[in-house]
Amino acid sequence: MRILLSNDDGVLAPGLAALRTAVADIGEIHVVAPDSPQSAAAHAITLQAPLTVRKVQLQGGTAGGFPALSVDGRPADCVRLAIRKLLVPPPDLVLTGVNAGANVGVNVFYSGTVAAAAEAAMLGIPAVAFSAAMTGTVDFPRAARLCRCVLNSLLKWGLGKGDFLNVNIPALGPLRPLGVRVVPQSTAELTDDYHLQSSGPDGEVYRLGDEYSFAATDHENDVTSLAEGYVTVTPLQVDLTDHRRLADLSRRNWASCLP
Ligand code: MN
Question: Which residue ranges form the domains of the chain, and what is each CATH number?
Answer without folding.
Answer: 2-187+218-257 (3.40.1210.10)
